[in-house]
Amino acid sequence: MQDISEKVSYLQGLSEGLNIREGSPQGKIISGVLSVLDEIAESFLVMQDRFDELQEYVESMDTDLQELEEKWSEELDFAEEIRCSHCGELICFDPEVLDDEDVVEIICPYCDEVVFVNDGSFDYQPSFIGDEKGENEEHSGAPI
Fold it and tell me: What's the pTM?
């Protein structure tokens, strides 16, 4: 956007070359307009630089978000799901919890109710997210 600054500089040089004096009323107006144009051009260049920096930052965030989405998608393919019997929300969790030797409680993040404990106190049929649609509906993972 140097083009705007160059045009303002050209007009300032033209004004000086035509001997437009600041002492005359017209000279004061032209000089003032050229001065304002110069300030606008400088401000515009600063805004353009800031915009370019912001654009780079947003593109960087977009790339990071895309990587996170891909990672999450890969992890979600191996997740199990269970429906909260209290609020009805679907909760996804790592299937390794089922085989953990320690007692682990799965708590609904929406209503803070315990939806599963791996100590056998909940009757649970796992349902993988990757199952066919009809299978997911039959075995929603909800405690029986």
Answer: 0.43
